[in-house]
Design a protein that fits this description.
two-stranded antiparallel ribbon; 2 domains; alpha+beta; about 180 residues; 7 helices; globular; three-stranded antiparallel β-sheet
Length: about 180
């Protein structure tokens, strides 16, 4: 079953669960913020000429009204594109770090450990969750992060966040500088 994690009437992320009793485990994001609601979305069927509502927000039906299979195809394409984009960012980041000498510095494993949640978000196409993760990493002042410089810096994190925001066509977060 597919569930949407909703905050401020916006789908932040989707998850696939075979066991609906586990849904409560996904009610809080990695920053400790709760979602307004978790809604099963793979059973939504739009009604011709009516559209549908969610949390008192009305969506007008597209013309022509897509069938359930068309919706599945649309969402599959959106998710696959997000996964492809996330994978491309992972490759870009890894390439950048290899070229900067991360292997010779012996910090590859430390980088993998530090970025593991971000990698999961990007590889699953959970781009809004990736932005949340990047924000957490930007505000981190701990030694795990500082020891990874110059391979991970706030300038690098803002650059990747802005790439994701541009992909999602949302406002870019300005980099306040060093």
């Amino acid at each position: 079953m597919i569930y949407a994690q909703i905050r401020n009437n916006i789908i932040i992320n989707t998850i696939i669960l075979d066991d609906p009793s586990l849904i409560s485990l996904f009610s809080i994001d990695q920053n400790g913020n709760t979602y307004d609601s978790l809604v099963q979305i793979d059973n939504i069927v739009p009604q011709p000429g009516i559209g549908w509502t969610f949390d008192n927000v009305n969506w007008n039906p597209p013309t022509p009204i897509p069938t359930s299979q068309t919706l599945v195809d649309i969402y599959t394409a959106v998710v696959q594109n997000a996964i492809n984009f996330g994978q491309a960012l992972i490759v870009q980041f890894a390439t950048q770090n290899v070229m900067a000498g991360i292997t010779q510095s012996g910090k590859t494993q430390a980088m993998l450990n530090y970025c593991s949640n971000l990698y999961v978000c990007l590889s699953s196409g959970s781009l809004y969750a990736a932005i949340d993760g990047l924000n957490t990493m930007i505000t981190d002042t701990g030694s795990d992060k500082t020891n990874l410089s110059p391979f991970i810096t706030n300038n690098i994190l803002y650059a990747y966040m802005n790439q994701i925001q541009a992909y999602l066509k949302i406002s870019l977060t300005p980099n306040p500088g060093p």
